Amino acid sequence: MSDSPDLSDHRLVILFGPGRSGTSSVAGTLARMGVDVPKPEVPPNNSNPRGFYEPQWVVDFHKDILGRANVSTLDVAPDAPEVAEKAAREGDAPDRLREWLAGALTESRQIIIKDPRTVLLSQLWIDAATDLGVEPGFLTMMRHPAEVSGSRTMHYAKSDDADRRRALAVRQIAGWVNIALISERVTRGHRRVTVRYPDLLEDWRRQADRIGSALDLRLDPPTSLAQHPVDEFLDAGLRRSQVDWSSLEVPDTLEAIGESLWEAYAGLIETDEADDASFDALAARYASVHAASVALATDHFRRVRKPRRNHAQGARRKTAQTSEPQRRRGPLSAIRGLRKG
Asked: Is 50 exceeded by the pLDDT of residue 106?
């Protein structure tokens, strides 16, 4: 874009990770080291009193698109990104994003974009950054799926009964698997780094240096500063939910995929190189499980809903049959009444 400022030396960090994976912690850490969160930000609330570090415009932008696409934040469908992208490109979303991103990068040399929905619209962001001459860098936060499910349930589903909580756990684990698979796939070929949430809390300096090196960031103040603002922001107590698979009731197959995916990410973190074949195999396994689940659920709801439709149709027929004689009697009764008068 010839009429745009040169942004090639600016840095765009796109943060991936389901809610309760430590994304706010790492975004808050980088925000205290010279990586800006575009304003205005989503305000803190009871579920995250230290702040979300999410640009309000980005959250509203994503919600609008996903709402039109009928795609959820922790969507379990493997094709969720394609559905969301299609909805985005049917309107002016690409132009709106490019214009907003240009303004945000003009105001700050280094910015971080955090919203759990971003992964579902990642190609939209990649295209916008490329048009502006900026190479995006990706930071993925990982937390064990059982812990993510436990933390989400603790904060968002405290009042649900046991059956609903079990069903919620299954959807949350499936959503974690799907989002983790998408995150790895869409970041291939780009600058990227993955950080485990417990590792960030244990030694944030080491993880910040890893992030800075991988994504070519200027961290200021540097991690060498003895009394650093991040020290007052992070503490091990942030990790309040530490559950494992024994605390959840999920299908064995789904648990096996989730654990294998967690281990595959561990290998990616240790070597900085992904075993594409392993991730692709897990994606195929999950797609098969999802397809089978959809088939079973479709048949189940067909059976459940059909008697209700038949009952409703019968009720309407009965109402029509009883109403007809009343309609016929109505005028006759009126005539009789006049005659009596």
From this structure: yes
